[in-house]
Amino acid sequence: MRLATPSGFATEVFLLEAPDKGLLPDGHWTLVGDMRLREAWTGAGMPEPGDALWVTVPEEEKKLRTVIPWLEHWARVPLHRDATVVALGGGVVSDLVGLGAALYLRGVAWQVWPTTLLAMADASLGGKTGADLAAGKNLVGAFHPPKRLVACTGFLKDLPARHLENGRWELIKTALILGEMAWAMEMLQDGPVRFAWVERALAYKAGVVHRDPREAGERRLLNLGHTLGHALEAASGYRLLHGEAVGLGLLGACLLAEEQGLKSFPPDLLDLLVRRLTPLAPLIAPWPACLPLLHRDKKAKRASGHTEEAPATEIHCILPRPGESAIQRALAPRVWEVPHARLIDLLDREAHRA
Start and end of every 3-dehydroquinate synthase N-terminal domain (predicted)? Predict the structure, then answer.
């Protein structure tokens, strides 16, 4: 089915059970796909261009150096301006293929066929492409929306349980942005991910992106959980998956909101968050490893009066509120120290109870 999106939205969005070759581009197209999906793709009767690239890209290789050989390959084919690149895989593949499409010939069309729940719920929609630098995540990138997003839920059947959980956190993020505690608690319960949750999260994100395509205001709300989450992810040496780090960041954001004097969260919600996140406790880096990464976050900015020895930065922090939409506040990175400590304490207590 085709998802309803705002009039004039840059990306057509389809949610299907199985892939449909009728949704592939007209004219010349090529593919960059995750090697692990090649058999599933061809087994579903989907065409495989002769110049396709089947790749293996772990999280730590989400770098510019990974994209350059793809650009060279497209130039040798050669790929012309009227061609389309199809990305098949998870968030790392879609971010890098989208970046490559933005760079090649100063921008060629592309489609994204996300195959993980995380990519379906977040990375595939919105036009953000990116690569990581040693200093932090997604510090290189471009806004280059795909022409079409085709999410086939059948690809999720063979996804490991940890990766399904990884994507669930981006869905929970949407509920917390909206302040919908009942929806958040529903998704925090044990049980399978529902198709309707993905549909609703994509529809919400499409509306936000359409109103604020360049992240000048409202779209920053989509960073809920990512401020502390990105720091935890990088400080763990990427042993934390992205969605897991976002989940920890969501709990941290709830705690920070309370520290900032906003409305307290229902204890039942916090208990569910803590229980789901407790297995990740051993992967949480100490605060001194996180603070430098927060200073280098792409949402951070220099404030007046900074010095080389003590950079006085501010960072756009997204604070959730029960029953109301999340809000934005520019705060010093150090405000995360207490929520970081409380997060560790809550998870440790839960681990000892269990």
Answer: 56-165
